[in-house]
Amino acid sequence: SLTASSLAYAQNTTNVACTTPGMASASSQKAASSVTLTSSSTALLAAVGMAADEGEGGEDIASPPGTTVLPKDPPANASLSPVQLSFKPILPVSGRLTSKFGWRVNPITKKISFHTGIDLAVAEGTPVAAALPGKVCGRGQSAAYGNYIILDNGGGVKTFYGHCQAILAPLGAVLRAGDIIAKSGNTGMTTGPHLHFEIRVRNIYVNPLWLLTPDEK
User: Fold this and answer.
1) What's this model's pTM, rounded to 2 decimal places?
2) What is the mean pLDDT of each run of 10 residues along the chain (217 residues)?
């Protein structure tokens, strides 16, 4: 499994790549039941997703040409393996889990592709907290993710927050877990207001639910 030995942010960290999100190709498995993800709940992730108009979107990693069923193996730059970090992340927002990490049928493109994070449906303007301590190493706009912010959390770990209404933390800001960095929104490719949240370990996308709610992944 992927591990990161330390999440204590070193202020002298240099030359850390903090890339702008690209355009890939996206998707979402659906379930009739809903699920609420809150900072005090770790057993509410039984449902795969919700109706597309309740907050999903973004662009994912494209599936191989001709794919007609959900693949079993992840893309080369993603992992389905459990992840261990020395610092447990907190939820950036408390909201409905509308799309999990992994292969899905994108609610916008209707194509099979790999969702690189999780989608949490919340009202526009909801404060977004830093899930881990770190430094703002990127912020901007993209067609797929709208307004986004990226934190370098040290030890090869980065966290990404997309579809924001507004970005509040300035580039270079050193933050604690829980500090407010943005307001959630409905920017970019979306079916409704939500936050797209990613955790990357050494440039590999990993499942945030392994860390937030390991019993449910």
Assistant:
1) 0.78
2) 34 41 34 36 34 68 89 94 90 94 91 94 97 97 96 96 98 97 96 96 95 68
Residue type, 204: I
3-class SS at 210? helix
Give the total residue count for the chain.
217
For every residue of 6-74, DSSP letters joined together read: --PPPTT------PPP----------SS--EE-TT-SS---S-B--GGGS-B---EEPPTT--S--SSP
What is each CA distance from 135 to 12, 101, 112, 173, 201, in whole angstroms?
A: 11, 24, 34, 5, 15
CA–CA separation, 217 and 81 (whole Å):
10
Instruction: Report residue 215 as tokens.
Output: 């019993």
Cβ neighbors of 215 (< 8 A, separation 6 or more) are 42, 43
